[in-house]
């Protein structure tokens, strides 16, 4: 007797649903990694974000630390001579050089006498023959008075010869030499500044 195998017929709708389920399962398996975890590419951080710089750190360009502040010196330099008393020199120039030379000519006898004072106050008197007739030395106070009178006279601006005053018979004529300047005056025309110099000099005769 022949044996006949009965084949169950499959409905068309069931076959379609079965194929869809198979495809869905294959897609799920394809999205998993080797250990069944999601694809590593899905967990990567978005590209384009900066890395390696901590928050708030300065950039490498344009930001330089400010220079240290410089406070003014507490001991500023003092200019030369500041705060120091300036005492004028009592004997300007070389002490051995001539400070002033005055020659007096005339008088009743018509004689000539000269007094030479040096920077240290030492003086020499010359007679009518221009020979030494006496020596001495002025005190510091006398020398100060003579220096003050010479400075006040301002020889650079005195006339070389002073005239125009009254004529004094048997009077004197004086010639002064000081600081490279020579001035002359007769007794009646002498400026007051030169009279002060005469008064500060040692006497012409002893």
Polypeptide structure, described:
The protein contains 3 helices and 7 strands; from the N terminus they run αββββαβββα. It has 206 residues and is α+β, with helices and mostly antiparallel strands. The chain has a domain at 98-200. β2 and β3 form a beta hairpin. α2 runs antiparallel to α3. The longest helix has 19 residues, at 12-30. The radius of gyration is 61 Å and the shape is globular. The N and C termini lie far apart (195 Å). The model is unreliable at 1-12, 32-62 and 71-92 (pLDDT under 50).
Question: Key features?
Answer:
21% strand, 20% helix, seven-stranded mixed beta sheet, single chain, disordered N terminus
- Could you tell me the mean pLDDT? 72
Could you give the distance between the termini? Answer: 195 Å
Q: Total helix count?
A: 3
Low-confidence stretches: 1-12, 32-62, 71-92
Strand-and-helix sequence, N→C?
HEEEEHEEEH
Strand order of the largest sheet: 4-3-2-1-6-7-5
Range of helix content: 10-25%
Largest sheet: 7 strands, mixed
Shape: globular
Radius of gyration: 61 Å
Q: How many DSSP-defined strands?
A: 7
Q: How large a portion of the residues is in β-strands, by DSSP E?
A: 15-25%
Helix/strand structural class: alpha+beta
């Amino acid at each position: 007797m022949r044996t006949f195998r009965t084949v169950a017929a499959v409905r068309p709708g069931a076959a379609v649903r079965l194929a869809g389920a198979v495809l869905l399962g294959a897609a799920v398996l394809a999205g998993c990694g080797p250990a069944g975890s999601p694809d590593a590419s899905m967990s990567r951080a978005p590209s384009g974000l900066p890395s390696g710089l901590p928050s708030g750190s300065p950039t490498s360009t344009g930001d330089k630390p400010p220079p240290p502040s410089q406070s003014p010196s507490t001991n500023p330099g003092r200019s030369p001579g500041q705060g120091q008393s300036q005492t004028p020199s009592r004997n300007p120039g070389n002490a051995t050089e001539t400070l002033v030379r005055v020659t007096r000519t005339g008088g009743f006898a018509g004689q000539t006498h000269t007094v030479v004072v040096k920077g240290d106050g030492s003086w020499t008197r010359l007679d009518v023959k221009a020979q030494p007739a006496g020596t001495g030395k002025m005190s510091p106070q006398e020398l100060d008075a003579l220096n003050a009178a010479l400075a006040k006279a301002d020889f650079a601006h005195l006339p070389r010869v002073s005239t125009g005053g009254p004529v004094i018979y048997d009077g004197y004529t004086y010639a002064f030499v000081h600081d490279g300047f020579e001035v002359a005056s007769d007794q009646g025309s002498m400026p007051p500044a030169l009279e002060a110099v005469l008064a500060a000099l040692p006497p012409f005769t002893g």
